[in-house]
Each structure stands twice: as structure tokens, then as C-alpha cells.
Amino acid sequence: MTQEPHEQIFADALKRLDRAAEFADLGKEVLLRLKSPKSVLDVSIPVRMDDGSLQVFHGYRVRYDDTRGPTKGGIRFHPDVHVGEVKALAFWMTCKCAVVGIPFGGGKGGVIVDPKQLSRLELERLSRGFIERIADFIGPDTDVPAPDVYTNAMIMGWMMDEYSKIHRKRTPAVITGKPIPLGGSLGRDDATGRGAYYCIKELERIRGWNPAEIRVAVQGFGNAGQHVARLLHADGYRIVAVSDSHGGILRPEGLDVPRTIELKNQGRTIGAVYTTRSVCECPVCGDEDCHCNSDDVGSGEVISNEELLELDVDVLIPAALENQITAENAGRISAPVVIEVANGPTTSEADQTLNENDTLVVPDILANAGGVTVSYFEWAQNQAGYSWSEDDVHERLQRIMTQEFNTIYQLADDKHIDMRTAAYVHALNRIGEAVEAQGTSRFFAPGDNE
Questions:
Q1: Strands of 245-374, DSSP E
Q2: Which entry of 72, 96, 108, 264 is annotated as an active-site residue?
Q3: I need a labelling partner for 261 at 20 to 30 A (CA). Which of 28, 232, 365, 444 fits?
Q4: What is the mean pLDDT of the chain?
Q5: Is the pTM of this model over 0.85?
Q6: How many CB atoms lie under 10 A from the CB of residue 33?
Q7: What domains lie within the chain, and their CATH numbers?
Q8: 192-214 pLDDT, tens digit each
């Protein structure tokens, strides 16, 4: 029986688990636990629309594994949200938290909706309604949501406020990624992109790169993609192409990244909550058909997302959605280094091709772990009633990302495996230690051959 595409995402995610288990020091019980999520919640959310009509939206919250601590993971608003996808994302979060050694398990949530079709008030009603439905399922010591695709700090603030109202006490630690005045952490806004940036800086050191000679393409110009591009551009890297859901721009001489970010984020419809401008619109006036060719940023060639992935660049950064590099296009990926800022952008079948082509892939569970790491910092600050400086946050993040990158890079070299498998081995060893600490058949039935 053929699996649905979204269920295939989850099955594909588990393939990485099986491969990593060959190189990890763990018993069968760890694998058995990680084959299925701890719990899955399916909810309906009635929302009164601005025209007086009622719409019912559907959402999910998955708690995958909490052996190492409360489950942690974002909430996405997207028309293609599916329970299979959410389970895969929660599994990846479980491994990601273990990779960077923070005391969380993995969770994830999502609502099936196109948020760009909602007014600000409708968006707030939906956000609060979702929390009302899952309020007994989450909590600072149980499950801690955060932003994800098409959700942001303002939405997290609404969600935290709704949870606090339900429980009759202000509870900032229930949600991370909040606005600073509502208990958010300094340094959270660029944490995902900054974490990937620190990984790239370690590769720069190891491989002796001259940033001015390194051409970079970024697929996905949302929050994470923008920040990694901004940080690399400031260091002299040549960002030659970026794209969003509408298409992309290629400029071999390099893009003016700060100006591109400014224009992308001006928006036309939902303003401060959502931006709809495409990066393939004119970087001067915003029109797709305009030919201003202003000296402001220079002219560029409009390309598709698919074309961007196959560009002849030194570093490719997929920072959009899942399954962008597949068995169909993996053989045409020219970049020798891929930094996965998106969750699950590469399928397991594509992995095989990339490995055969000696492409170095810094996997998502390492490369984009900066976001959940600083979310942990935010949670810790909320629990303690204390705040850290931005420099302190950056320093702590750099220390963790640098340490874990080098551990995984060395593990890959020692075991002669790719970095993705090494990252999963590293995660499984840590999860396995936690499972073993509670007792397995090695303890309860010593004669059992695991």
C-alpha cells in the first residue's frame, strides 16, 4: 500500500534513525521508544470571522519523547500541515535537542490554514483558540511551544497570554519566541540563522576559506534565511542568490543583502504580522514587471526555487520547507556544501546521491538548532525570573554550536560516516543514556540479549 506524501515524511525520518543505530551504542529499547510519538492531539478550532461567519480550522500537537525533559517545538500555520508531517518534525526536534545537549524532548504543532488570508483579528482569534484547545496538553514543565513557519513573536505573545488567562496566572515560560516586553529573550529573533552561521564559521576555519571567494545561495528568505544571509554578507561572503515562495533573484556579483531584507520585509497586506512581498519583485519599487535597474542594488536575473538549488555555488542553504532536495534533483546539486537551515529539506534517497558525490551536508538537527537553543535560554530566564544580555546569549549560543559541530564533525571522520548520520548517532547516544538511566531489559532481565 502506497503511503500518503505526508506520512512518507515520517517514514523517511525514521530511516535516518535505523541507519544511525548501526553506529550508536544503545539497546533495542531506545529504538523501540523512538519509533512512535508519546502522544498526538488532533483538535478543531472554531473561529468567528470578521464577516460574522464561522469557520472551523484543524490543528495538531505532537509530544514525541520527553525522556530528557519537557517536549519542545514550534507551531506552524500552513495550508499543507498534516499529522504525518508534524510527527516527523517532532521526531527531528527530539534529536535536535539531544544534539545540542539541552534538557528538552521533542514536540511540534500546526494548524491547517493560509494565514495570509486572515485579518489581524482573525489571526489572533485563531491563535488564542488553538491554545484554548491544547491548554491541558502544554505547560512550562510539560510541553513548550515556539514559533515556526508563518508564526512569529506577536502570535507567541497572544498564545502565552491566552494560556495565562486560562490558568489564572502569568506563565511566560509556557511559550518561547515571545516579544521582549512579554518575557522574550534578547537574541532569539536571529538565533536559528545565527546558529547556522556559527557552523559555517567552523567550516571556514577547518577548510581555510576566504569569505570573499565563497558564493552562497539561500533558498527561503524568511526569518532564518534572512539572518544567516545577513551575517555571512557582513563577513564578506558573496550572497549571489536568494528566493522565497514566489521565486528568486540571481546576481553573480553578489546581492545587497541588507537592502533586499529591507524591501522583503516592508510588506503590503498584513503589515507587522505578515509580509507578502516576494524577493523576485523589483528591489526598488516592488513591482514584478518594473525595470528600474536602480544603482541601489543593481539588476538581477529572476529564477525559480528549483533553479536556485542547482546553481553553481560553493554553499547552498535550503531554508524553506521539507523535501526540497529529492532523488529527482539531488544529482544536479552542484554546491559541495549544503547547510540545512530548514527542517527536513533533504530526503533519505537524496542523501545517498549527495554522499556519493562527496557533498558535505551539515544536517538540520545541527545547523538549525540555534533556535531551540536560545528558546531554552528564554525558558530558563523565564523560570528564574531573570534576563541575560544579548552578548551573553550570543556567547552561550556560539559556545554550544561550536562545541557540538566539532564533536559531530570529528565523529563523522572517526567512523567514516556522513555528518547527518554522525549527528543522529550523537543524539541517540544521549537519548540512550537517559533511557538506560530509568532501567531497560539490561537491568530488569539481565539475561535478555539486546
A1: 247-250, 301-303, 315-318, 337-339, 360-362
A2: 108
A3: 365
A4: 88
A5: yes
A6: 16
A7: 37-171 (3.40.50.10860), 191-367 (3.40.50.720)
A8: 999 999 999 999 999 999 999 99
Identity at 377, one-letter amino acid code: F
Q: List, for residues 346-362, the tens digit of each pLDDT value.
A: 998 999 999 999 999 99
Task: Reply yes or no on whether 28 is catalytic.
Answer: no
- DSSP E strand boundaries for 160-314: 215-219, 238-244, 247-250, 301-303
CB within 8 Å of 383: residues ≥ 6 apart: 140, 173
- For 227, the grid coordinates are 539572518
- Picking from 78, 65, 79, the residue whose alpha carbon sits closest to that of residue 14 is 65
With 0-12 / 13-18 / 19 or more C-beta atoms within 10 angstroms meaning exposed / middle / buried, residue 438 is exposed
Nine cell digits for residue 201: 564559521
Is 230 within 8 Å of 261 (Cβ atoms)? Answer: yes
Provide the 3-class DSSP secondary structure of residue 3: coil
Mean pLDDT of 399-411: 97
* CA–CA gap between residue 92 and residue 115 (Å, rounded): 24
Size of the chain in residues: 450
